[in-house]
Write a structure and sequence with these properties.
Length: about 140
């Protein structure tokens, strides 16, 4: 089912019939990410279109919560190198912080407050982001 969808998308792009809003581009980027990461395959959409979708996805504005700022302040107080609001180049996901350990390893840190949960369970988008970043090793 996924492969015919991406072939159709590619055909629409080639014929200049693909009129897509930013919201659609973001959803198509996430669908393409899901397919390529979950199936460990190269993207089935044209490179220029994939770049356009990635660009739209990375334009999503994020603003750190007070909780996130407090976590970053605490990490810095431990004399760790911290980069806030880094962007994963492969997926376009915003990562709350990248911590450089004393051994020089970079570790992605996601600060998931209450908006990332429904009751005690993470939201679908939070689960997907965690799974994809974990699978690619971010």
């Amino acid at each position: 089912l996924a492969i015919p969808f991406f072939i159709h998308l590619s055909d629409l792009h080639k014929s200049d019939k693909l009129c897509s809003t930013i919201e659609n581009q973001i959803q198509l980027h996430q669908a393409s990410l899901w397919f390529t990461i979950e199936h460990e395959m190269k993207s089935l959409i044209p490179c220029d279109l994939a770049e356009e979708f990635l660009s739209s996805f990375t334009k999503i504005q994020t603003s750190p919560s007070k909780f996130q700022k407090d976590v970053v302040t605490t990490l810095r107080s431990l004399d760790l190198g911290v980069r806030e609001e880094a962007t994963c180049k492969q997926t376009g996901y915003s990562i709350d912080a990248i911590v450089t350990t004393k051994t020089g390893a970079d570790v992605a840190v996601e600060v998931d407050g209450p908006t990332h949960f429904l009751g005690r369970k993470p939201t679908g988008s939070t689960v997907l982001k965690r799974r994809q970043l974990t699978k690619i090793g971010e």
